[in-house]
Design goal:
Two copies of one chain form a homodimer. By secondary structure, chain A is mostly helical. The first copy, chain A, has six helices and two strands; from the N terminus they run αααββααα. Helix content of chain A is 48%, strand content 6%. At the A-B interface, helix 1, helix 5 and helix 6 of A face helix 1, helix 5 and helix 6 of B. The structure holds a DNA duplex.
Chain lengths: 143, 143
Amino acid sequence: MTVIFSKKCEYGLQAVLYLAAQISREVIPAEVIANKLSIPKEFVSKILQSLTENGIVISQKGKSGGFAIAKDPKKIKLIDIVAAIDGLSMFNNCVMGFPNCNPENPCPLHDKWGELRSKAYSMLTDENLDNFREKTLRKISNL
Amino acid sequence: MTVIFSKKCEYGLQAVLYLAAQISREVIPAEVIANKLSIPKEFVSKILQSLTENGIVISQKGKSGGFAIAKDPKKIKLIDIVAAIDGLSMFNNCVMGFPNCNPENPCPLHDKWGELRSKAYSMLTDENLDNFREKTLRKISNL
DNA sequence: TATAAATCAGACCAAAACATCCGGTATATG
DNA sequence: CATATACCGGATGTTTTGGTCTGATTTATA
């Protein structure tokens, strides 16, 4: 079972965080990213490819090509990556899978989960990728 | 993507909540439960079968057989069902999938997620199934 | 005691998630 | 301009999850 994000999304978050933490904006090949994060190269490559369509990363083809963050990390939030990969349905669906879970027709956990869910949302929206730079570098250097 | 629980677990939670909310302790056939909750009969049947092994529900075979809650709903918590079906790994794993995510080597979301996760845990442990009776009945009557 | 209605075990099937492979194309660099 | 190296698109393979089916067994009850 996944915690809350799919593996694809987890890898996407890791990879984008990694790219956003770089000092230089030079592209990095998928293979280097994959090795650094110990995740399958082909897979992370596909994920980053799809993120180019969302304007989160850019890619450069050909020799010494690779991926880089597309814009100022101050302007990207974790929720952007989650939205691009897993979508935002987890912020709308009932935690127990009941249909039509809403304030008029709540499941037994509706209120408590609603509160946690909105805090989870804040966790992904309150800070931008630049705010995570230090922590990302520290984590990555210990992988 | 799942919210946090697998479909199996979601259905298990719904079914057990339903059984625990009954006034009588008489067994209810899987088909009735499935119809009431609009979930596949064969599937919920399998899930309840597996929960008999954990002592959460009991089953009666043969004509007019079915499933019922195994013990006093005051003595069962939602976490028991989650633990029996999905396990508790989501309470130990990194939300972004980083390896060795711990206070010495935290991911960028470690602290925030840790807090949310422990609140999610409380949500599943603070109350027993009897506490959810009213809410369950109200929800189920509107399905 | 025959029958109908249920669980149970295990095989089976389908779909989604996870992951790899290949052939094409772009491009930096020698 | 040749070559090596990278992304890209699409097909393919694998594993896990979600769901169904069948046949055996159990058991209440007519």
